[in-house]
User: Which sequence fits this backbone?
């Protein structure tokens, strides 16, 4: 996301299993994503659980204290280097 909260690029990682995440239980999963269409610059990395890949509308809320923008959980700052 840019500074205004606009999504600059979106990726749907494979191999995560949110259906197995249980309430009141910490869960740890790893994945990697790339954003080849994102222009170089500084952004905020954000996460949302959506009904299906390609659907940008957040679907499930997480029990988290992370800041949110339009239902997306902001994970932190990220720098996209030149391609």
Assistant:
């Amino acid at each position: 996301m840019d500074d205004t909260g606009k999504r600059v690029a979106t990726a749907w990682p494979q191999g995560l299993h949110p259906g197995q995440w249980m309430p009141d239980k910490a869960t740890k999963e790893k994945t990697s994503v790339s954003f080849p269409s994102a222009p170089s610059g500084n952004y905020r990395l954000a996460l949302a659980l959506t009904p299906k890949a390609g659907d940008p509308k957040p679907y499930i809320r997480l029990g988290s204290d992370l800041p949110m923008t339009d239902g997306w959980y902001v994970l932190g700052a990220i720098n996209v280097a030149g391609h």
Observations:
- Strands lie at 41-47, 68-69, 72-80.
- Residues 42 and 79 are 4 Å apart (CA to CA).
- The chain has a mean pLDDT of 87.
